[in-house]
Structures are given as C-alpha cells and as structure tokens.
Design a protein that fits this description.
- The protein is built from ten helices and seven strands.
- With about 220 residues, the protein is α/β, with parallel strands linked by helices.
- Helix 7 packs across helix 8 and helix 7 crosses helix 9.
Amino acid sequence: MIGRSPAMQPVYRAVARYASGNLPVLIRGDVGTGKDLVARLIHEGGTRKDRPFIREANFENLSLTLQKVNGGDIYIDEVSSLSPQQQDGLLQLMIECENIPSAQRPRVISATRKDLRRLAQADVFRDDLLFRLNVAEIQIPPLSERSRDTYELAEVFLSNADASKSQSRRFSTEAMDMLHKHMWRGNVRELENLVRRLAVLYSDDVITAEMVVTE
C-alpha cells in the first residue's frame, strides 16, 4: 500500500496485527479505497500465505469449499450484496470452520462499503452472521482524509503507467496541487484511472495543470 498519512497508520497496524491470526476480518471502506488490496495483504502477511486465497465460495457445497480453501482464506467482496440464501450458506460455512482445529481452520475475510449494522437493524442482513463476520474490523479512510498521500500515489501511478516511457515523467507542481484538492469520490481507484489516462493521452515529460483540467 502507498501513503504515509496519519489516517492510514491504523490500517497498517491492523493489517500487521490480524494477518497471522485466525479471527474473521471485516474490511470497511468506500468504493475505490483499496479493500481488495487490504484483503490480499492480510493473506500474504501471515501464516496462510502459502495456502489458497479464494474469492468465490460455494455456499451450496460447504465440504467442497472447505476442501478447496484448504485452511487458507475465503474473501467475500461486498458481503452486503449476498442474497438471504447466500447469507445462510456463509453462516453455515463459518459455523463449520469453528469446528476445525485452529491450525487448519480457514478464515473468512469480508469487505463492504455499506453499514452492515443498519442493514441488520432493517432485517436485510442477518445479525447472527454480522456478529461472526465483525470480530476484527479495519476501516479504510477515503482519499480525501489521507493528507498528502495523493502526491505520492499520483507519482507511483504515473511511473507504473508505461514502463517503456521516460522514467523522468512527472506532474507539475500546479497539477499536483490540483489533484490534491480534488474530492475523489471514487477514491484511489479514480485517481489511478485518471493518471493512467493522462499517461496515454500525453507523451510530454511533464503533465501540466492544463492537461489535468482537460480531463
């Protein structure tokens, strides 16, 4: 992950703390904040890194899912969108996992941009499932709360946009300030997409504020 803002420090500490544990982890954050990346870091930073990381669980065949994950991590992206039947299946899966010795027990990592507590209060999401998912929680801040991380992120994205082009490519100071002041409702993903588009549209070594305004 990129960024050294104070708002990101609790995220880094939580990833380091939870990576090697057995606790289910719920990752909360707006669209584009990097929930998938955090899930990957949790998996790769712990003792499960050499075991499977599966994104699609088969809630209708629990034994097959448990066999497939083989003590690794099951990642449920946008868990709030699960149907009632899928919620039932995930709950049964987590109950089955609790009966497996800790050394071989799979872990469920889930992510959501919605408030599961409110959904549970509205009887849209099972509260007993929520209690099992939300044992360890990580809240990812939006880009607007990440101080000057926009500068570092933009530089890295521009450098990665096309490795065959000049590594001296950069944003002008005015362009950087413009990126920093933008609200970024799509968060890091929106910033990355913009930088990639600018890198393709302009071959100049310096990306100017005028180029950014055009986009």
